[in-house]
Design a protein that fits this description.
The chain is α+β, with helices and mostly antiparallel strands. The chain has two domains: about 120 residues, D-amino Acid Aminotransferase, Chain A, domain 1 (2-Layer Sandwich), CATH 3.30.470.10; about 150 residues, D-amino Acid Aminotransferase, subunit A, domain 2 (D-amino Acid Aminotransferase, Chain A, domain 2, Alpha-Beta Barrel), CATH 3.20.10.10. A hairpin with a 2-residue loop joins β3 and β4. The chain is globular and about 55 Å long. Bound molecules: N-(5'-phosphopyridoxyl)-D-alanine (PDD). N-(5'-phosphopyridoxyl)-D-alanine (PDD) binds next to α5 and β13.
């Protein structure tokens, strides 16, 4: 397995970083996940733009053009040129003596790797999710490598034999531990606005655009936990999830069997077209 680390392509065994890397000590870094399909990278520009935005937000001086310029060469070296694969990228503030203050003139640590990966089928359904308090911080718009809140809540979902944890802040549904969530009510699609309480998913943005194209009204407002029972449909979006129909959320059952809502199915179909 090959890893891109600070401008070099090395084997995973030789991909070593200092224990004083601020990613390791503070979780001081940003990551991205995107996929390459057989017909090309899926929304590469949107993912790299988000990475740049996030680095700018936390003041890591790095231009993602370097990653962009090296991506094809890296995939070639990894034997994944033109193959379906998942690409992980991360940039941390670099190696410096442990002090909270940002170090000056330290080069960021840049890493990426890729692994063969097939997207789930587009008609993913029967997702089950638990509801968990959203005890994360107030900058969930930043795709920080510090994911304790996400992994702790996800673990609750795994222990309950479900697929995802859906997070609730002040009685309102924010997002999943690694997905965005949408609801459908009376033909309207409803999802949390892109503010500091959610990650503005690329898949989320794609689905909103698809709704506009299909003339499905979109309302960007948080749904209250106690309104779930009044919703007609619900689905997750995410790079690794695509558009996945939710059968059960907390105690509320949307579908007893293999059923899927009409709007969710339409959006899955439209999303699948983008993969061609
Ligand atoms: N997770 N919300 C959170 C908290 C996420 O971590 C993710 C993605 C999303 C969906 O974003 P997008 O559509 O851009 O993938 C929403 C990635 C896949 C991960 O952590 O592996």
């Amino acid at each position: 397995e090959k890893v891109y680390l600070n401008g070099k392509i090395v084997t995973a065994d030789n991909a070593k970083i200092s224990v004083f890397d601020r990613g390791f000590l503070f979780g001081d870094g940003i990551y991205e996940v995107m996929v390459q399909l057989e017909n090309g990278m899926f929304y590469k520009k949107a993912h790299l733009d988000r990475l740049q935005d996030n680095l700018d937000k936390i003041g890591i001086p790095y231009n993602v053009k370097e990653i962009d310029d090296n991506l094809d060469g890296f995939l070639h070296a990894a034997g994944l040129e033109g193959e379906s694969c998942l690409i992980y990228m991360q940039v941390t503030r670099g190696v410096a003596p442990r002090k909270h203050a940002y170090p000056k003139n330290v080069p960021p640590s840049v890493m990426m790797y890729a692994l063969p990966y097939n997207l789930p089928p587009i008609n993913l359904k029967n997702m089950k999710a638990v509801l968990e308090p959203d005890f994360r911080w107030h900058r969930c718009d930043i795709k920080s490598i510090s994911l304790l809140g996400n992994i702790m809540t996800n673990e609750t979902a795994m222990n309950a034999n479900t697929d995802e944890a859906v997070l609730v802040r002040n009685g309102m549904i924010s997002e999943g531990s690694h997905t965005n969530i949408f609801f459908v009510k009376d033909g309207n699609v409803i999802t949390h606005p892109a503010n500091e309480h959610i990650l503005n998913g690329i898949s989320r943005q794609i689905v909103i655009k698809l709704c506009r194209k299909l003339e499905i009204p979109v309302i960007e407002k948080p749904v209250a936990e106690n309104e779930i029972k009044n919703m007609d449909e619900a689905f997750f979006t995410g790079t690794t999830t695509q558009v996945a129909s939710i059968a059960q959320l907390g105690h509320h059952v949307f579908y007893e069997n293999d059923a899927i809502g009409e709007v969710t199915a339409r959006l899955q179909k439209a999303f699948a077209e983008l993969r061609k």
